[in-house]
Inverse folding.
């Protein structure tokens, strides 16, 4: 997969929406384990997005790394879950549609804030990346990282097993002072570090920002990196209602925010928490 060539032809690559959100709407547990226990629902989820006309599907493997699985006490076969996740997305993808293997954070902290070493994180991500590549994904997407060090562990590990495109996005809390994650990493330092270590695209997803604010993050990335920028916002800022986090932005307002991200320099867009088929459809209609 030649990412630059595809962008030259398409101009904009459109990804799918929030996996957990859409699965919850269908009454399905938001877990990679469902790839094994309820594959028909996962295939249906991917197929609906493929039929919508997106350019890229993301595998349902976000939490399927060993540290995450074991720390949660899950009885899930890591290898089988990742291979199934890749296979189901591949089965749903049509001609000209690409599949990216999803790699999320461990949910743990590196020393000195936590007990894990960078070597342990590296080995953890290398294992998952290797399995996803074996599952014949077109590329990998490392997302929802808040710690640049963890993102780099994942990127270096993934790059060690493949020369396919690797997209890396972090989650931001604020847009001022260069944009910052909750761990204090700024867009300029993130862009420099990811480009130096072999990322094919950089960007942002999830976090505490609105789609319009994510456009500001895209603009800062464009100032500090020559790589394509991927932005996947939530359906608005998270709100706490009856002790539950909700996202209530309408598909039309979400699409307007996505357009601002593109105008600010994003060449790849999609959706994260709270986004549904309707949100991505609205974005598709507006962009195309």
């Amino acid at each position: 997969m030649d990412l630059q060539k595809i962008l030259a032809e398409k101009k904009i690559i459109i990804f799918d929406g929030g996996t957990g959100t859409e699965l919850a709407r269908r009454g399905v547990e938001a877990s990679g384990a469902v790839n094994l226990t309820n594959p028909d629902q996962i295939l249906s989820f991917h197929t609906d997005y493929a039929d919508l006309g997106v350019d890229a599907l993301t595998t349902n493997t976000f939490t399927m790394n060993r540290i995450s699985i074991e720390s949660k006490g899950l009885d899930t076969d890591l290898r089988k879950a990742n291979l199934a996740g890749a296979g189901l997305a591949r089965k749903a993808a049509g001609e000209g549609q690409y599949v990216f293997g999803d790699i999320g954070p461990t949910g743990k902290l590196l020393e000195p804030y936590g007990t894990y070493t960078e070597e342990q994180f590296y080995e953890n991500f290398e294992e998952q990346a290797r399995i996803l590549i074996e599952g014949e994904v077109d590329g990998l997407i490392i997302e929802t990282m808040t710690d640049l060090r963890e993102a780099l562990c994942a990127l270096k590990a993934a790059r060690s097993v493949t020369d396919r495109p690797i997209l890396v996005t972090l989650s931001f809390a604020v847009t001022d002072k260069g944009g910052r994650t909750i761990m204090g990493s700024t867009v300029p330092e993130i862009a420099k570090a990811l480009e130096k270590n072999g990322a094919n695209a950089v960007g942002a997803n999830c976090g505490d920002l609105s789609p319009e604010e994510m456009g500001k993050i895209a603009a800062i990335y464009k100032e500090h990196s020559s790589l394509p920028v991927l932005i996947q916002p939530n359906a608005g800022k998270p709100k706490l209602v009856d002790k539950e986090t909700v996202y209530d932005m309408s598909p039309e307002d979400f699409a307007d925010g996505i357009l601002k991200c593109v105008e600010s320099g994003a060449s790849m867009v999609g959706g994260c928490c709270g986004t549904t088929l309707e949100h991505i459809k609205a974005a598709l209609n507006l962009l195309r």
Remarks:
- The longest strand covers residues 139-145.
- Residues 3-287 form a domain with the TIM Barrel fold (CATH 3.20.20.330).
- The chain has a mean pLDDT of 95.
- The chain has one domain: 3-287.
